[in-house]
Specification:
Blueprint lengths: L1 E6 L4 H13 L3 E4 L11 H12 L5 E6 L3 H7 L7 E3 L3 H9 L5 E5 L5 H13 L6 H7 L7
Parallel strand pairs: 1-2, 1-3, 3-5, 4-5
Helix pairs in contact: 1-5, 2-3, 4-5
């Protein structure tokens, strides 16, 4: 499985922990995030992840910032991206099952690192249910204005 990960300064420690966890499991992970705790602009780290997901260069994306709102808003500008904010495991499961999310957005200021790792595992292992949800997902992307 291939994954792109990005983060701003609020998510650096989370990113390193998740990256180590995923590499130990044998996943191929591309790190687009900052490796520092110095203040940065999150869109600079979101766009490469969202582009990889949008263009099917990777299977999934992971984005981490303080609240996860900014990274989700930025990623969801891309036509083929469905980025969901997840703060508990149950939401993580539903965002995959019902919304076929392809990027998980983690709020570092509102989760703990072990919880974030568990959510990533859930996100990567949960399948989209399809069925009645497929019709809804098909209506998400804007095709014309």
């Amino acid at each position: 499985m291939t994954i792109s990960i990005g983060n701003d300064h609020a998510g650096t420690d989370y990113k390193f922990a998740i990256l180590k966890h995923l590499e130990k499991k044998g996943y191929t992970v591309t790190n687009y995030g900052t490796d520092s705790n110095d203040s940065v602009d999150y869109p600079d780290f979101v766009h490469p992840v969202a582009k990889d997901v949008n263009n099917n260069k990777v299977d999934f994306g992971i984005l981490i910032c303080g609240s996860a709102n900014g990274v989700a808003m930025t990623a969801n500008k891309y036509q083929n991206v469905r980025a969901g904010i997840c703060w508990i495991n149950e939401i993580t499961e539903l965002t995959r099952q019902h919304n076929n999310a392809n990027i998980i957005c983690i709020p570092a200021r509102y989760t703990a690192i072990p919880q974030a790792i568990k959510m990533v595992d859930t996100f990567l292992s949960t399948k989209f249910e399809g069925g009645r949800h497929q019709n809804r997902v098909d209506k998400i992307a804007v095709t014309s204005c």
